[in-house]
Amino acid sequence: MLTNEWWMNASDGEAAERCRAVARSLDVTFDRLAERRYAGRTFRTAFFRDGDDSFALVPGGRFTLGFDVDVFRPSQEILESYAGSAEEYGLGNLREFLAPQITPVRQVTLQPFLIEVSATSVDAETAEELAEQIAPYRLPTSDEWELACGAGARTLFRWGDDCPMDVYPVDRGDFDLHRIPNLYGLDIARNPYDTEVVADDAYRGGDGGSMICGGAGFFLGWLALASSYQLPEEMAEPFDEDLSLTFYRRLRVIEE
């Protein structure tokens, strides 16, 4: 199996040869290997092409996903930002607020897969027959999406536990780690307005901009970009009724 352990220990030549075999099996084109550096971590990323569309490799294996809100140690700036939001909107303490929105810590075993570098907006026509439209690809499961987003990072966000407390993600500022490709080379969880639908009838990577539109504090404005953030069920109704409000990202499992 093309596991993360094998991938990290293989030579560039071995990795490239395995990628060429993957490309033949899936009838896609192996594009290139590239060393990615992101938030202090490095990874050898493999890119593939299917026509004009770009895909990145996510090796398989056993992974820890989710985030333990009980051990979260937010900065003083985050605590102050949340306290202001909690007072204005009548929210509970920070950990009680986070718990239903952050997936729990769990161990998962996933097969290797190719996942689309950029998500695509769903129009009304495509939304009606999405599964048929994207075959032989499919939507990622929630676990696959979360792994692809965080790339193994055990922090709240893929870059760490902190976020800017003077701008929202949609504002221009000095911080740009949410705008550049992640460790796997994916454009993912960049904008809270761009919520992605996954195969588990869940929504990841955004909240439709509800916190920003509602004037919540900066921390809550960034929260939807956390790798383990999942839109709570009570907030999902507008997306359930109109899938064209969301984006989708295609995936193909590498069968070995």
What does this entry look like structurally?
The chain is α+β, with helices and mostly antiparallel strands. The chain has one domain (4-253). 29% of the residues lie in helices and 21% in strands. It contains ten helices and eleven strands. The chain has helices spanning 4-9, 12-26, 76-89, 94-98, 124-128, 130-134, 142-150, 210-213, 218-223, 237-241; strands at residues 29-38, 41-50, 53-58, 61-65, 106-110, 113-116, 120-121, 196-198, 202-204, 247-248, 251-253. The strands form four sheets. Strands 1-2-3-6-11 form a five-stranded antiparallel β-sheet. The chain has a two-stranded antiparallel ribbon with strand order 4-5. A two-stranded antiparallel sheet has the order 7-10. A hairpin with a 2-residue loop joins β2 and β3. It is globular and about 55 Å long. The model has no long low-confidence stretch (mean pLDDT 95).
Task: Summarize, please.
By secondary structure, the chain is α+β, with helices and mostly antiparallel strands. It contains ten helices and eleven strands.
DSSP summary, beta strand count: 11
Principal-axes geometry comes out as globular
Element order, helices and strands? HHEEEEHHEEEHHHEEHHHEE
Strand line-up across the major sheet? 1-2-3-6-11
Overall tally of structural domains: 1
What oligomeric state best describes the polypeptide chains here?
single chain
Strand content: 15-25%
Mean pLDDT: 95
